[in-house]
């Protein structure tokens, strides 16, 4: 999505907290250890739960859904940035992953 602020996984600040907008089954399978989960499908109903981070780094599986969320948040005045390549890029670079329920983490 053109015109959306974007950052590569390699350029994320070390203390960046990700807002993961994937659906619950994707989150459960594997996510960044410090990420916060707010599914895209629930975003508008849960806007009050958005973290106060500035900027807000938004991630999904590959970057498409998060780009749409960033465009929406930017229109609402939030300083959001899309994480290019999403969790696939994150995992591909060997960044940490955790899963729920004691299973081996994976990006689905």
TrEMBL record:
Annotated signal peptide: none
Pfam families for this protein: Rhodanese
Gene3D superfamilies listed in its UniProt record: Rhodanese-like domain (3.40.250.10)
Source species, domain of life: Bacteria
PROSITE patterns in the cross-refs: RHODANESE_3
SUPFAM superfamilies given in the database record: Rhodanese/Cell cycle control phosphatase
InterPro entries the record matches: GlpE_sulfurtransferase, Rhodanese-like_dom, Rhodanese-like_dom_sf
CDD domains attached to this UniProt entry: RHOD
Segments forming domain Rhodanese: 12-99
UniProt xrefs under PANTHER family: FAD-DEPENDENT OXIDOREDUCTASE (PTHR43031), PYRIDINE NUCLEOTIDE-DISULPHIDE OXIDOREDUCTASE (PTHR43031:SF1)
Protein's name in the database: Rhodanese-like domain-containing protein
Species of the source: Pseudonocardia bannensis
